[in-house]
Amino acid sequence: MSGSDDERPDRERPSWREIDQRRDRARTRREREPQGPAERARSRAATSQTLKQAGALFSKARGGAAGEQLARALREAHGTPGLAAACRAYREALGLPEEAALLSLFLDSGDSPLVVAAVEALGAGALAGRLEPTAGLRSQLRTLAQGRDDAVADAAEALLERLG
């Protein structure tokens, strides 16, 4: 037996939880509270700005909340005559999307310049390794390659050849 158990029989050994709490308490760094009204105001402003930046970083869509709203409008307009207008609004505000699903909506817009731009963006994304063309996307490109619009058909054929 160890000597400490014999010397202090009335004292209990600390539990593993207590040991961990002591360890954690020792590791935490105490932050100094801002002194004075000016320093508190600067601290609040800095905290607010940091939270806004973090929110923009973790936003699902490009462009933050406005980008999410434009992407939602684009999805809701799919299959309606307003799809081309929604695509133009998205493009004017944020440029072409980087997500394959949104680019696929651009391919359905029926507006030749938008479709060609989306095909080129898909090609650039695929070459850069950011986009992996799915079977559905390839099928959509094959359909466009057989269409009546020569500019769209040429762009779709060229991309299909590059993708292999």
Q: What's the mean pLDDT score? A: 81
Percentage of residues assigned to helices: 55-70%
**Secondary-structure-derived class:** mainly alpha
Question: How many alpha or pi helices?
Answer: 9
Model description:
Helices cover 70% and strands 0% of the residues. It has a domain at 64-163. It has helices at residues 3-7, 16-27, 37-57, 64-77, 83-94, 100-107, 112-128, 135-145, 150-163. The protein is elongated and about 90 Å long. The termini are far apart. The protein is mainly alpha-helical and 164 residues long. α6 packs antiparallel against α7 and α8 packs antiparallel against α9 (150-163).
Summary of the model, kept short:
By secondary structure, the chain is an all-alpha fold. Helix content is 70%, strand content 0%. It starts with a helix and ends with a helix.
Fold topology:
Elements: H1 3-7, H2 16-27, H3 37-57, H4 64-77, H5 83-94, H6 100-107, H7 112-128, H8 135-145, H9 150-163
Helix pairs in contact: 4-5, 6-7, 7-9, 8-9
